[in-house]
Amino acid sequence: MTKPTLNVGCGPDEWGDVRLDIDLRTQIRVKSQLNVMADAHYLPFIDKAFYYVRCWHVLEHIAFPALAVCETRRVGDSANIRFPVDDGFKRELFRNLLALSSYRQWRVALQGIHLAIRTRELGAHLWIIRPVGVEAHVNSYDLFPFC
Predict the structure, then answer these.
(1) Fewest 10 Å CB contacts: which of 5, 71, 86, 102?
(2) Which strands, in side-by-side order, build the sheet including 135-138?
């Protein structure tokens, strides 16, 4: 039997067998597609319950990112952890402004612009890593020796 996959901090993303988020709506009030409500700091699963854990753009929103990484490591055989190394505002705003030129994408682009502005207005990113313009993709737990 194959182990399930876990999406920590799923927000509106429908990927994963188990989709976990802390609330029915994200910090910027987008509807979450969760099927388990829990805190990323304390995942309610047994050790190594999941084949693969995805934790994308969650760490910058929470108070204790190291604790969430350790929990991800505890419950998953492997994981992909992503976080921005800037506040994301300029990159998302620019990307979505460019997408406005596409007739098929204009609604999605307008929503992206709105979400970028809401994220900045609400201060939803609790921390920022420099240099600007690069996104970290972490595929190895070896990069987190504190767990």
Answers:
(1) 102
(2) 36-37, 18-21, 5-8, 50-56, 76-84, 135-138
